[in-house]
Every structure is written in structure tokens, then in C-alpha cells.
Amino acid sequence: MRLRPRTRTRPTSCTFALVGWLGIAACTAGGQDAPRNRAEASVVELASQTASPSASTFVTASASAAAAAGAPNAAPAEPFVAAARARAMLFPDGVPSAAGCSAEPNAANQPVKAFVRCMISHRFAEHVQAQELALSLFDASGDVAATEVAFLMDGGFRGDIRLVAELPVGPYLKHLRWVESAKKAMVEFEAGISKHATSKLNYRQGGVLWKFARSVGRTTPSAYAGGWEIGYNVSGSLHSSESAVRDTIFHEIFHLNDQEHEGWSRRVLGKLVDVIAERCKSRSPCLKPYAPGKTMVRGGTYYAFQPDNGDIAHEYAAELATRYFNEQLSMLRGQTLSEAPFKCAAPENAEAMKSLAQEFFGGVDLTPTCGAQPHR
Ligand SMILES: [Zn+2]
User: Fold this and answer.
1) Position 9 pLDDT exceeds 70
2) Which tops the pLDDT comparison, 84 or 100?
3) 22 Cα: distance to centroid of ligand 1 (angstroms)
4) Ligand 1 midpoint to CA 312 (Å)
5) ∠ CA(256), CA(272), CA(291), 5° rounding?
6) Which helix (H) or strand (E) holds 54?
7) Which residues form the domain of 171?
């Protein structure tokens, strides 16, 4: 049993237009990759900020990007971070001329992708290992590793939390390595699943702006996200290992997708989750077969069913998606699952997994038929 204290944080700075709560991230665990040290980790909340001004700076298709930039054919086909937003977060005071990047990202002779890549390269120019990772992250996913703008986050009863910019270099390099590794696994997952899908995947993992930050005198929040931007706290208590970070990131990115699918989790899984919660009344032994992840709230129950934690359908779905990711990635890699697929534990699980796969992942399920394969 993994227990963790639970906290809530609530960014209310003017740059965070809060429209609702999403649970966070590390409520992941689940599967064979659950890290050992999760017991000490804190659960924080993930604030949705879809109304953020920054959200409008993101584009998801090359056509709209090219049109906005006035540079047809210059934008990449995959989701990406808008050049102006990348510039603002990489070089708030302007791109140094010494960088050799065009001063005007939308200039006709400056393809947007090359401009952003040039800025990333220059931002990490003094840190060779980080530069390599940041460029790899950009090349694989279109993600931009930048820094947060210092601000005070309203931590509710815990008071204000000061977050400052922190480049993931030196003692914090491991965080950039873990993010890069996680996104690489997600690209592998996406490519692998696509080969088996009968329809196009309706899921976005790329084009994320990473705002690396450090909390002053605190270890929360570990992360917060909205509008395809993720704030990553290098002092976050949840970021204890590569697998913990990978699960956390998948959980967070699923929340963003859930939002884009007009609250799919509540619309489609809400009733199923509510019925289970009503039947079990927060009794952990009763909830155990229905919990997609192993993470529990200290003094509470499985994170997916924890009361007073926002809409449990949101958290259940993010846990479910992370379990799906881990199970399918294991199958794609030819590995044996360490326990029976989630779908086999209860009819409700099978129904939820099927709905998830159909909505986001082309209906793919590579896990063995229930009862057909012994587990490790
Ligand atoms: Zn969550």
C-alpha cells in the first residue's frame, strides 16, 4: 500500500485564469513500474487554466499556424508551441543577436520550426548535456523546454508558494533527462499503437511548453498544467524517479486531452465511477479491484476515488489512461505484464478501458484475453 499526504495548491496569479480543478499528476502509480519511494511523495493538484491568455497562442495544425504566421509550409505538421510564445518564455528580454536566430520568427525566410530550435539551442548553449536533451525533446515531440516566470501561487490554507525560474541544468539536469525520456516513451507508445489502430488516434502528446521552476522553501506543487503548458517544479516531491516522472507526465497530459474532448471523463465514465463510489463508500478493500492505480491518499483511499478531490471521474480517467499507457507499452515492447490486465478485474474495468481506447487510441487493446495468460 502506498500512502501519501494530500495537499491542494491553487494558482491565482493573473497569468493563471483558473477555471476548474484537475487532479494532478502523480496520482499515477499503477502497474509494474510504480516507483518504490512514492510513499513520501505529496499529491498536489493540477490547475486547469484553459482560459489563460497563453492558451490562445497554441496551435495544433500546420494550416492554422502557417496562416497565422503568414508563412505557408513553414510550420511543422504536428502540434507545436507557437514561436512567439516560445520566444517569450525562452528569452523574455529578447533573443540576443549573438544567437544567430532571426529576430522575427515569422519572417518569410525564417521557418518557424528552425527559429524555435535555434532559440532552444542558444538558451542551453552553456550546458552541453542539457542542450542535447532539450533539442532531442523538441525534435521528438515539438516540446519546448523553457523556464517559468516567477510568481506567487495561492496555496490555499498552506499560504502563498513562491515559484522562481530554474533552468534544468547542473543539479537539476536529471529532471530534463526524465522529461525527455518520458516523452520518448510516449512517442514510442503513440507510434506503436497507431500501427494497430483501426482509426486515427485522437490524442495529443506533443507540442508542450515546459516551464521549469523551483519552489522556494517548499516541495509543492510538483507540477501544474493548462493550455498545453506544464509547470515543472525541480523541487517537487513527486519527481523522485524516472518512472514516477513518466507516470506523472502521462497523467497530466491526459487531463489536457480530456479537456479538449469536452470533459469526456465526466460525460462517458461519470456514471460508472459514481456507481462504484456509491457502492463502496470509500472502503479501500471494496474499491481495490476498480482502482486503475495503486496510489492512495494518506488517511483516505485510492486516489481515483478520493472524495473532496474534485470530480472523481477526472482522476479516475487519468489513472485509467496511465494504466492503459503502461499496459500497452509493455505489450508493444514484448514484455509480460506483472499482473493481470486491469480489464480482467471487473466488468466495469473492461467497459471503461474499452471506452478509453475507442475515444483516444483507435480502439487498440494489445493485452491478452482475460485468463489466457499466466502472469509473472
Ligand atoms: Zn489528476
Assistant:
1) no
2) 84
3) 5
4) 9
5) 70
6) none
7) 2-54+150-360
How many angstroms separate the alpha carbon of residue 129 from the centre of ligand 1? Answer: 31
Q: Is residue 281 part of a domain?
A: yes
pLDDT digits (tens, 9 = 90+) for 173-196: 999 999 999 999 999 999 999 999
Grid cell 495544425 — which residue?
61
Instruction: Give the count of domains, the chain.
Output: 1
275-320 pLDDT per residue, tens: 999 999 989 999 999 999 988 887 889 989 988 888 999 999 999 9
CB 68 within 8 A of CB 32: no
Rounded to two decimals, what is the model's pTM? Answer: 0.77
Confidence check: pLDDT of 4 > 50? no
The grid coordinates listed for 60 are 495544433
Tell me the CA–centroid distance for residue 4 and ligand 1, in Å: 14
From the CA of 360, how far away is ligand 1's center (Å)?
17
For residue 113, being part of any structural domain is answered with no
Residue 351 lies in a domain: yes
Dist. CA 176 → ligand 1 center (Å): 21
Q: Say what the pLDDT of residue 97 is.
A: 82
SS3 state at 229: strand
From ligand 1's centre to the CA of 27, what distance in Å? 6
Cβ pair 219, 237 in contact under 8 A: yes
Give the Å distance between the CA of 257 and the centre of ligand 1. 12
Instruction: Look at residue 10 and tell me if it is in a domain.
Output: yes
Q: What is the pLDDT of residues 105-154, one digit of tens each?
A: 566 655 788 889 999 999 999 999 999 999 999 999 999 999 999 999 98
Task: Determine contact, residues 35/241, Cβ cutoff 8 Å.
Answer: yes
What are the start-end ranges of the H helices in 124-166?
128-141
CA of 46 to the centre of ligand 1 (A): 6
Q: How far is ligand 1, taken at its centre, from the CA of residue 44, in Å?
A: 9
Average pLDDT score over residue span 1-29: 28
Helix (H) or strand (E) holding 212: strand 209-215
